[in-house]
């Protein structure tokens, strides 16, 4: 999922486009965040989105900590609804 799509790269590497982030979350085993922090992205991964993750999924945050609602994340991890979380 990316707002900037390179069709030739995707075709050459067998990458499929997903139109909605929630669809991507439902289909993925590993999600890695690489985005800027803004008022629109603060809490981007929240309780509602965490409920969409597969039980064996791992979330990697390679961006700002504030993109993830830490309370909702802790709840999801403690409940076993998310296999793991990594942050840099």
Label this structure with key terms.
3 strands; 88 residues; 31% helix; alpha/beta
Q: Would you kindly provide a written description of the structure presented here, covering whatever features stand out?
A:
The two termini are 21 Å apart. With 88 residues, the protein is an alpha/beta fold. The mean pLDDT is 94. A three-stranded parallel sheet has the order 1-2-3, with no helix packed on it. The chain has four helices and three strands.
Summarize the structure.
This protein is of the alpha/beta class and 88 residues long. The chain is built from four helices and three strands, in the order ααβαβαβ.
Number of strands: 3
Number of contiguous helices: 4
Strand order of the largest sheet: 1-2-3
User: What's the main sheet like?
Assistant: 3 strands, parallel
**Measured distance between first and last alpha carbons:** 21 Å
User: What is the averaged pLDDT score?
Assistant: 94
Low-confidence stretches: none
Rounded to an integer, what's the Rg over CA atoms?
13 Å
Categorize the overall geometry.
Answer: globular
| Strand percentage | 5-15%
Structural class computed from helices and strand pairing: alpha/beta
Q: How is the quaternary structure best described?
A: single chain
Which range best describes the helical content: under 10%, 10-25%, 25-40%, 40-55%, 55-70% or over 70%? 25-40%
